[in-house]
Design brief:
With about 400 residues, the chain is mainly α. Helix content is about 55%, strand content about 5%. It has 18 helices and four strands. The longest helix is centred in the C-terminal third of the chain and has 37 residues, at about 265-300.
Length: about 400
């Protein structure tokens, strides 16, 4: 759709607020009937003016028009003043919700993903990271009304018994430091620590190992109380092994048909993209990085420095949806995951190409003689640094 609109083969596009998600769809005129996003949530001013910015993009159109159609009552007038008051979530946490923050520090929330208290956990993780990296204390603040509570927080930070290197707390400033130590303690108790070292998703036994790691992350960190980690493990394993979106969508639709009351296909597809973006590429990227950060010093303590030095970047594999260097580097130079998979397969590229080598193949391939889809060919043309016939 994006390519057809860019080439002016489409004159009109009727769509939802997907435009807000960063798709590059320049248009001369935009008509807005009911400013909502997601599953019926009202847009705020920032969302609306971001959408407005899609009309008349630089180098595409000199100017653009936005027509607001008031066929329905709008929840709020987002067309008024563009300015909106912004408040620092961290400043709100320490200055306006200090008592709640202090309680969360003393007794960490059950789950680091709790909707009610995750703000407090993130705030304290940041406070503690600043404390051990630069010695910054809350009592250095000029806020006198919360000075006693600030003093208690500073004392809790100073008295916290840590066994892990300081940089681990600094790099993972979104999780209560007690959770990091809890994970380290668990790993130290393992007689066969090598059995907890992640392996490449293509290796034998990789799925079973990933399942154990995801289950541990669930039990010690996320603590949702569900078995969702089992499904996320299977999806993550397929995703990192390069399974195409087309196949993942087909699998999701087939699975949804096995339910007692299967829902609409579009719901199944929307759920899949939520699982990929919000669960795998956000939540599990965060926690697998944390996991390897904690595992590394524990391996060194156990006298296994070589294994510690060669830990695979599991979080990077999840982020890119790839577990070989070539595919990751194709995406690093700007190719989409889908086109990268097709391009690598078409040329039977080895798994260890650097970015310059990937760019070289991109420049030299004669795409007119290839069976690559048109959208993939268009990507290649845009990414080429030199003009090559074909």
């Amino acid at each position: 759709m994006e390519e057809l609109l860019r080439e002016r083969k489409l004159r009109f596009v009727c769509c939802t607020s997907t435009l807000l998600q960063g798709m590059n769809l320049p248009a001369r005129n935009i008509f807005v009937e009911d400013p909502k996003k997601g599953l019926g949530n009202p847009m705020n001013k920032g969302d609306f003016w971001n959408l407005v910015g899609r009309a008349g993009r630089l180098s595409q159109e000199f100017l653009g028009n936005v027509f607001c159609i008031h066929g329905k009552d709008w929840v709020s007038d987002v067309t008024s003043d563009r300015l909106a008051t912004l408040k620092s979530a961290f400043q709100v946490a320490i200055n306006e919700r200090t008592a709640e923050l202090l309680q969360a520090i003393k007794e960490p929330p059950v789950s680091s993903e709790s909707k009610e208290s995750s703000w407090a956990e993130r705030a304290y993780a940041s406070i503690y990271a600043d404390f051990i990296s630069s010695g910054k204390r809350l009592t250095d603040s000029l806020n006198q009304t919360t000075k006693d509570q600030f003093l208690q927080i500073d004392m809790l930070s100073a008295n916290f018994k840590r066994t892990l290197p300081d940089e681990i707390f600094v790099n993972n400033f979104y999780v209560h430091p007690a959770r990091l130590e809890l994970l380290a303690a668990y790993l130290r108790r393992q007689a066969e620590l090598q059995l907890w070292v992640p392996v490449n998703p293509y290796a034998p036994g990789s799925y079973e190992l990933l399942l154990r790691i995801f289950q541990l992350i669930e039990e010690l960190l996320i603590r949702s109380g569900t078995q969702a980690f089992s499904y996320h493990t299977r999806l993550a394993h397929q995703w990192m092994r390069g399974t195409s979106l087309k196949e993942l969508v087909a699998n999701k639709i087939e699975w949804s048909k096995t339910k007692p009351e299967p829902g609409p296909i579009n719901t199944a597809i929307r759920d899949l993209f939520h699982d990929l973006e919000d669960e795998l590429r956000y939540k599990y990227v965060k926690y697998t990085r944390l996991y390897t950060d904690v595992l590394r010093p524990v391996l060194i303590e156990r006298g296994l420095p070589k294994i510690a030095e060669t830990l695979i970047p599991l979080h990077l594999f999840l982020e890119y949806g790839a577990a070989n260097v070539t595919l990751i580097n194709l995406m690093a130079i700007g190719m989409s995951r889908t086109s990268g998979l097709l391009f690598k397969s078409f040329l039977s590229l080895p798994d260890n190409l650097g970015t310059s080598e990937c760019q070289g193949y991109l420049e030299r391939v004669n795409i007119d003689l290839s069976s690559l889809p048109a959208i993939c060919k268009a990507e290649i043309r845009r990414l080429r640094r030199t003009r090559v016939s074909g």
